[in-house]
Amino acid sequence: MCDQTFLVNVFGSCDKCFKQRALRPVFKKSQQLSYCSACAEIDGKVIVWDSFTTNKEHAVTMPCTWVMACAYAPSGCAIACGGLDNKCSVYPLTFDKNENMAAKKKSVAMHTNYLSACSFTNSDMQILTASGDGTCALWDVESGQLLQSFHGHGADVLCLDLAPSETGNTFVSGGCDKKAMVWDMRSGQCVQAFETHESDINSVRYYPSGDAFASGSDDATCRLYDLRADREVAIYSKESIIFGASSVDFSLSGRLLFAGYNDYTINVWDVLKGSRVSILFGHENRVSTLRVSPDGTAFCSGSWDHTLRVWA
Amino acid sequence: MSNNSTASISQARKAVEQLKMEACMDRVKVSQAAADLLAYCEAHIREDPLIVPVPASENPFREKKFFCTIL
């Protein structure tokens, strides 16, 4: 478990621009990267896009480094984001050009390490966060109070997903300890745990019916776990795929599983047959995130090549 | 040294409690669970625009054809 204790001033060459500067060590997944302050602060932005016109609707500059997680509120009126600042902040979205969005920022969550994932629960009032400190937590947006915390992962928690049903009160989280754990939000207890992956789990996503979930991992496989049978029921892998899967999502019916990989491609798997349906090329660097739109007509992938692509 | 062992004992106890809880869970047979996943897929396949393509007029991501002619 990573606990950020203190910042050390080190001089050396920055991992990004290779200039000799004072470095800020950054720990992600127990790996240390060092960026000089110019590189580390450059990309602290959250942008809301219109996917049909490709216009930027809002842009908020975060006061600090790397934004690692962002989420839309169910009402569409606010966004939550966080990253290396160990906090999750909620910004109400406004179309009024005169208003400064950054001024209305509300800090909701506080962790002792980076925020890896966040998600609003069924309402705009509660946020679930996952952090590099190995815990997940449920927060009340209005008061910023911690409602429930979830301990059990032995290492950084990298992803989480809420159960799709209206009355659902469970969520699944995946971490660097190779485990995917299903939690009860009210009691804070771990209900089920699955440990069949061979490496860090980068992404988890519930099947649309809520009875199963898929996970993508650094071991280059995606796996489907059934919650009622309490076991892994399918593995999506190929010998030719050796790079980790960074992000997974299901199509609307659950028949297709889209997975973005670190080898710049997106593989589309047939969930029921276990075979690959197609492979999508287009990104010029790792695909880091992928999400299917709520109406199922398209999905969007984000990559280290600085682009977001919408596939339909 | 005894601190270490008491910590790991309590950790082990917690793990045992957790495992006991998990062991009591009612499990469904995989054949049944898989059949249910299949049924869900079949039921919703028509609504999935990525599998059953919607007509081009309704698809917001269709290839944008030009709507004007050059005179």
UniProtKB/TrEMBL annotation, chain A:
WD repeat ranges, renumbered to this chain: 108-149, 150-193, 194-235, 247-279, 280-312
Family annotation (InterPro entries): G-protein_beta_1-5, WD40/YVTN_repeat-like_dom_sf, WD40_G-protein_beta-like, WD40_PAC1, WD40_repeat_CS, WD40_repeat_dom_sf, WD40_rpt
Keywords assigned: Repeat, Transducer, WD repeat
GO biological process entries: signal transduction
Family according to the record: Belongs to the WD repeat G protein beta family.
Protein name: Guanine nucleotide-binding protein subunit beta-5 isoform X4
Organism of this sequence: Phyllostomus discolor (pale spear-nosed bat)
Gene designation: GNB5
TrEMBL record, chain B:
GO biological process, one term: G protein-coupled receptor signaling pathway
Keywords: Cell membrane, Lipoprotein, Membrane, Methylation, Prenylation, Transducer
GO MF term set: G-protein beta-subunit binding
Record membrane topology: Lipid-anchor
Principal place of residence: membrane
Domain of life according to the entry: Eukaryota
CDD domains given in the database record: GGL
Compartments in which it is found: Cell membrane
InterPro entries per the UniProt record, alphabetical: G-protein_gamma (IPR001770), G-protein_gamma-like_dom (IPR015898), GGL_sf (IPR036284)
Cellular component terms (Gene Ontology): heterotrimeric G-protein complex
Domain G protein gamma: 5-71
A Pfam family assignment: G-gamma
Family indicated by similarity: Belongs to the G protein gamma family.
Binding partners and assembly: G proteins are composed of 3 units; alpha, beta and gamma.
Task performed by this protein: Guanine nucleotide-binding proteins (G proteins) are involved as a modulator or transducer in various transmembrane signaling systems. The beta and gamma chains are required for the GTPase activity, for replacement of GDP by GTP, and for G protein-effector interaction.
Protein name: Guanine nucleotide-binding protein subunit gamma
